[in-house]
Amino acid sequence: MAYGPWAGARWRTVWNNGYYRIDVQWDFCQDIENNKTKISMMGQRIASLNGYYSFTYSAVQTGVGDFNGTKFAEERNVSVGGGGTTVVDCTDRHSEVTHNADGTWPSGQVCGWWRFNVPLASHNVPTVGWTAFNIDGEIPTIPRATTPTLSSSSVAMGSAVTINLPRASSSFTHNVTYRFGNATGTINSNAGTSCSWTPPVSLAQQIKTSTSGVGTITVQTKNGSTIIGTKTIDITLTVPTSVVPTISGHVVAEATANIASKFGAFVQSKSTLKVTTTAAGAQGSTITAYKTVIEGRSYTGSPCTSAAISGSGTIAVKTTVTDSRGRTATKTTNVTVVAYSPPQISVSNVARTSDEATTGTCTYNYSISSVGSKNDKAFYIQYLNGSTWTDIVRMSTDYSKSGSQTTGAIFGVDATTKVRFVAQDYFTSVIVEKEVGPTFTLMNLGAGGKSLAIGMLSSNNGTFETGLPFVSGGVRYTAKKFIAVTNTPQWLKVCTLKNSRDSDSAFVHVYTGDGWNARANQQTEVEIFVKDSFQSSHSTTDAFGGSYNVVGTYHAGIHVRVIALSASSCEIWLHLPWPYSSGFFTIESQCEVEVEGKCQTDAPTGANQTMGNLTPDNRGYPIGSVKITYDNVNPSTNMGGTWVQFSQDRVLLGQGTGSDGSTSMTFGAGQTGGEYKHTLSVDEMPSHYHASKPLWVAGGDNGSNNCVSGYPTPGKAGQYGINTENTGGGKSHNNVQPYQVIYAWRRTA
Predict the structure, then answer these.
(1) What DSSP assignment string belongs to 195-215?
(2) Which of 416, 436, 456 is a domain's end point?
(3) Are 586 and 606 within one domain?
(4) What is the C-alpha separation between 690 and 667, in angstroms, rounded?
(5) Which of 116, 251, 303, 590 is most buried (CB neighbours < 10 A)?
(6) 190 and 223 share a domain?
(7) Domain count of the chain?
């Protein structure tokens, strides 16, 4: 039980005969939870009502009793003077009274007993026996407000919850209301023992950035129109999972100019998609994010624009919106992308119709993506006429075609003629160039009789020239110059080797460098050795072996590729890493050689053979090598590899055991030692002494012989000396020999 505090002692008049009045002293406290009141009776008071009535008695019969009917008799000595008042203390007695169910005091309830009996024969003296103590009307009603409970402390909006109302009295009714955020409402205004409530989904508008919130249910308990009390209980309301943002619009449009009007469709590798999404939150939420995924790439915002579509066919455009509650909605729109690839050209042959003919035959195959038959198409063959490309044939009717075209008399006798094939569509042009060399001339005597050419026309400059490789000792020798004109690193196609015998090899020597305007890095030579250019028993992936070596200025961008065409033929390519390149190359070969000397920016494709790199860093300075430089320039700058500076502030000493003629010492690899300055200890100094002048004492006492006081023994002959004074600073001395500072580097990779 949990009784509250006592209300405070008070008096209740219980008897009055006109002469005397009797009051009982009492107090009460209440246990609201258990609907009880505790009564305490602890004293009596007798008052004379005028100045004439009085009495004195030594054995007044008094006392109080409890509500169980137990009476506790006591006797007291009491004296009441005329017009006076006397208080008689009684032993405190308690009584518990249970209120009615509605908390009201039970009328007529006996709360104890009292008596005051003066056994005197005098007139009007109190002679009251045991009398019931009744306090109707003086005890307040105990509040009996109902404490509600819920069938569930958390409920989704739109779902029902039961509010249990365990009322104290069947006469009680309840007014049930709610508050959630700023929203309020009445659930039931006359509920009995329970009521049901379905929180409306619209309450989600009170929690725009969360999926749940805490509200309050208030229960007001009434007895008729009288309000007994009010109790509250918290309830957690959650936003149903069905409350998600909505996507009302999802428009995918062409973002690349002119494609939609030209093709009426999305085009592979050319179209970019503009995705516009219209979305709204639900029940007060707002849209916080848009995410669109196309071909595995994500884009944010609305509208958003994609990168060029790489695929074709059906492409899914998936957009997910997120609202302020973290709820999402997704919309997927499939679009059709028409296949497209750049034009392709295959040229199988460009040659004179006969050895010395000026006409030729061009055999070709081309294809252009139709893009729903709406793509532009053109194919033409041209030759370089001076500085102008002139049409041999031009076609615009077919998206693909294989054919052969005979040219007019466009090939010079003594000159190389360039021919190009062009396939063109709406987006781009693809060009393939070929060359037709001059007709073969075995011998030509130059004008004036002072020039001679073999296998070519003479340039008439007083020289002997040859357009044929010459053979000596079974080795073919040839040479050619090259010029790369584009301002970018390029690949030089040196030659094609062909052979039908095993173990034949070739050696290529390329002389080149960085530009031609007195650049510092012009002096670079690359030696390429292809060994065993015929391996009939091997595949093209490992048919050829070889190596290359960079002489002179090294550059890490120099690469060599030997591309196998078959088991008996290969191409030799050299990557020139400089913006401008020029030079010439010589070829010594046991194989048949087709000299090229052409440059291109695209890397060659095909079965690349592994070539050993014999550049200076791999050849002369393997890992672990040491290099000395005067300037602080890391050797990797010119030689490649990874170099670290080491041995700062130290001289280098050879590993092993050595002797200086008297002492042997062993030094391990990587060991360090020595010190810049050293202070000699006594043991390290040369053995030596300092002489002092002796003093002779002949005898006698100290004073008569003028001896230094404290040294000779008075009266005793002998030789005595004195210490010299200290000298020297005791500082360390320099151990560093005369030196010249350089930079030491060690190769680590």
Answers:
(1) EEE---GGGGGG-TT-SEEEE
(2) 436
(3) yes
(4) 40
(5) 116
(6) yes
(7) 5
Please list the residues that pair with 297 across neighbouring strands: 294
Greatest mean pLDDT range, 61-75, 251-265, 409-423: 251-265
On whether both 178 and 271 belong to a single domain, the answer is: no
Residue type, 148: P
Residues 147 and 220: their CA atoms lie apart, in Å, by: 10
185 and 225 in a single domain? The answer is yes
What tokens does 636 get?
């990797």
For position 399, what pLDDT does the model report?
Answer: 95
Hey, what are 368's tokens? 């252009």
Question: Which domain, by its residues, includes 378?
Answer: 344-436
Bridge-based pairing of strands 545-552 and 612-613 is parallel
Q: What is the pLDDT of residue 251?
A: 97
Is there a domain that residue 511 lies in? Answer: yes
- Burial class, 45, CB count within 10 angstroms (exposed 0-12 / middle 13-18 / buried 19+): middle
Mapped onto helix, strand or coil, the DSSP state of residue 405 is strand
Q: Band of the pLDDT at 509, cuts 50, 70, 90?
A: confident
Q: What is the pLDDT of residues 57-75, one digit of tens each?
A: 888 888 777 767 788 888 8
The answer to whether residues 376 and 490 belong to one domain is: no
Facing residues of 233 across strands? 217
Helix (H) or strand (E) run with residue 542 in it: none
Two structure tokens written together for 431: 């060009």
In a 3-state reduction of DSSP, which class is residue 294?
A: strand
Over 90: is that where the pLDDT of 268 sits?
yes
| 613 plus 483 within the same structural domain | yes
> Highest mean pLDDT range out of 149-158, 626-635, 696-705?
149-158
Residue 738 belongs to some domain of the structure: no
pTM: 0.50
Residue 664 lies in a domain: no
- Domain end position, chosen among 207, 238, 269: 238
Q: Do 215 and 258 share a domain, yes or no?
A: no
In angstroms, the Cα distances linking 676 to 123, 650, 651, 744 are 133, 10, 12, 19
Q: Please count the residues of the chain.
A: 749
pLDDT average, residue stretch 333-349? 94
**Distance between CA atoms of residues 151 and 209, nearest Å:** 27
**Whether the Cβ atoms of residue 157 and residue 240 lie closer than 8 Å to each other:** yes
- Residue 125 token pair: 């003296």
Residue 656 belongs to a domain? no
pLDDT tens-digit map of 595-608:
888 888 888 988 78
Residues 679-704: tens digit of each pLDDT:
887 777 788 766 555 555 454 444 44
Per-residue confidence (pLDDT) for residue 707, from 0 to 100: 44
